[in-house]
TrEMBL record, chains A, B:
Protein name in UniProt: Cysteine desulfurase/sulfurtransferase TusA family protein
Alphabetical keyword list: Coiled coil, Iron, Iron-sulfur, Metal-binding, Pyridoxal phosphate, Transferase
Residues forming coiled coils: 242-269
Superkingdom field: Bacteria
UniProt xrefs under InterPro entries: Aminotrans_V_dom, Cysteine_dSase, PyrdxlP-dep_Trfase, PyrdxlP-dep_Trfase_major, PyrdxlP-dep_Trfase_small, TusA-like, TusA-like_sf
SUPFAM superfamilies xrefs: PLP-dependent transferases, SirA-like
Family per record: Belongs to the class-V pyridoxal-phosphate-dependent aminotransferase family. NifS/IscS subfamily.
Species assigned in the record: Streptomyces ardesiacus
Cofactor requirement: pyridoxal 5'-phosphate
Reaction catalysed by this enzyme: (sulfur carrier)-H + L-cysteine = (sulfur carrier)-SH + L-alanine
Amino acid sequence: MAYFDAASAAPLHPVARQALLASLDEGWADPARLYREGRRARLLLDAAREAAAEAVGCRADELVFTPSGTRAVHAGVAGALAGRRRVGRHLIVSAVEHSSVLHAAEVHETGGGALTQVPVARTGAVDPAAYAAALREDTALACLQSANHEVGTEQPVAEVADLCRAAGVPLLVDAAQSLGWGRVEGDWSLLAGSAHKWGGPSGVGLLVVRKGVRFAPQGPGDERESGRAPGFENLPAIVAAAASLRAVRAEAAAEAARLRELTERIRARVPALVPDVEVVGDPARRLPGIVTFSCLYVDGETLLHELDRAGFSVSSGSSCTSSTLTPSHVLKAMGVLTEGNVRVSLPPGTPAEAVERFLEVLPGTVAAVRERLGAPVATGTVRAAGPDLVVDALGRRCPIPVIELAKVIDDVPVGGTVRVLSDDEAARLDIPAWCEMRGQEYVGEEPAERGTAYLVRRTG
Amino acid sequence: MAYFDAASAAPLHPVARQALLASLDEGWADPARLYREGRRARLLLDAAREAAAEAVGCRADELVFTPSGTRAVHAGVAGALAGRRRVGRHLIVSAVEHSSVLHAAEVHETGGGALTQVPVARTGAVDPAAYAAALREDTALACLQSANHEVGTEQPVAEVADLCRAAGVPLLVDAAQSLGWGRVEGDWSLLAGSAHKWGGPSGVGLLVVRKGVRFAPQGPGDERESGRAPGFENLPAIVAAAASLRAVRAEAAAEAARLRELTERIRARVPALVPDVEVVGDPARRLPGIVTFSCLYVDGETLLHELDRAGFSVSSGSSCTSSTLTPSHVLKAMGVLTEGNVRVSLPPGTPAEAVERFLEVLPGTVAAVRERLGAPVATGTVRAAGPDLVVDALGRRCPIPVIELAKVIDDVPVGGTVRVLSDDEAARLDIPAWCEMRGQEYVGEEPAERGTAYLVRRTG
């Protein structure tokens, strides 16, 4: 059994468990009360805030605990936008932010606010110049993650923070994926984190608002957490969150080096072991434990299921693994292949043997899924056929449209075209991505009687 | 040491502790994931939902878990109001709701909505007829607590629910104080609860929205908890919350009888042991474990401090114990004395000896506080004085204005008046309450050069 999905939720760190148990007896009372049980709870809460602030690199009175990272982001975005309402209603986010940021941005847009999504390179990184270009007179807030949750790419936060600072615009950093590894560098204004991503318990997020940042909490509030996070404090979990953040930080440097080497093995060896694979994300500026790749002609859901049967828990940004049947917005923004997508995110402590076993199991698993789907095997023979060909993949889901395309590409002569009819959202991303991987020319798409027609020209 | 503030937060029930520990190992993964750790988490979440729904008396798919009771109320009020936006923007609440309901109502009013606060009787109970009278064509939602958190008075929820149902208006019940004791009877539409009030862990609330109720979640959402409570589920705590709700329910009938007898002792004996005390709240229709009384000529904060030193943890609705220096809105709405207020709320399992010891300690503690404040002692002698008298209590906080009034009332003849000048918010409530307790006539108030003048006529 190997759990390789730490980017979703890390198993509870032993220190978190210990702190949680200890504070169940000491930390259940209302920290706002003046009797002994309340004072004891208040001491625990204050100490947790001090510890978390020290780890983040902020003042204790700048940090509040929220019920989750998602709630921290929602409260942070809404409060910062409202605080600068007079400046304007323009919000900047990167195209690869976590859904919590994008959902907050959607609400802002629905409410009449303006939104700019900054695109990313094929590595998943934003260009600081693109943030600079997006800044306007009426920009109230900019958001940028410290590192991407799906591909591990680190963002140039310090550079973007400087640009924002120069323009007088606060930058909110979603640091959920990186906070366990270290402080977020640079002159950011707001920061959000999530304890269960660093081995803390669920039920705890944190929101930092630097002194001097205009902030107006939205929605009903109360007197708790500086009026920024209403509701009774989740105290034993808060204590465990703070304690585990200190603990993982103490181990971070050594563990980062170790995991980086393990993910480097996967990055290097998967393309050699499995044909038709695209490893995505920045090869150098990345989180230590995350590596993501996509496999042509593979149904992501089936692959995840087979890997689970083989004892590996991973996640995927393929459309078939999402409830909406749309591929990951991150992979989409990067313009990379989305079919057969696998994200491996190693929790601290992952033994090298587990990674080696994964590399042993993966090739056969992918091959079996491909065989079941009738994926093409390169034959090298060119069949005689007409100059143009239509593949009707209507009603078929990812990866079938690409498989059908690959099967017939050799049936047209060089210079001939294949027209793939598809009504699957993933085809829009994966047919161009296939062309890029295969060195074929992607001509473009056009509306068809049903679905969309994707035009591919054989170039070799 | 006796903790008598269960209405703020109950100590963790042993079953909650046990369930929390067990699910720390099984319930940390993302229940939305399909691999084994995710499936295991999903099973735990589903089972907890079934158990909680059974205890509440609803369908599992009507119940979502939120990060706290406060968040459940906020989400429930906002979602129900938005769901019936087309009907109108009128909201009804009782004047004695929990602050979470009142804060949600404030936000609604600030946003342009209409609000009716239904008053309560001196017992703290609403009159169903007053709800019926408040219902309008454009009423989108009505809210009523199942029982009051400060005085324990049970509300006529079933009757009000019927009236609302007949008018086609959904009723949201804040059941935070009563859910551990039993289901909320009646045909309500929405319900909110809070685990740490019944001995569950902090970090868990629940929101029930009956099928057929129009509901539009507000703010950014995600795919979790039916789109009604965004953010990673606080799973181990949810499991513990559901398990402990079942456990406290199993013990509820016997424990309710036992605690009711103990609070009855306090209700009956405090007025006999301590002079000038008003026991507040409905003597019969009330929660088993809560009893509240106010002591004339006593500073609430000092009294709490002295009781804490004597080993008793209680809370108070006196103005001096609130950060805003205003008395509890509940006591205010009831029109009862707010000075020297003490709420005793017994956690299940409180031994009779602890209550007896409290009754032993209380009289001396109150007497000492009164002596320190120079409170009047009834002398029975009538001093000769003019027909009218002015007491300048400007700049003096509760309970000083009432103490000064009581000191001089015998200095005016029967029929003469005392004019008390005060700028303390509590005086507005406590001077009329003192008149009622003392059988003197409260004439009324008028603006003074500084503060307010309260007129009292000596009648005996």
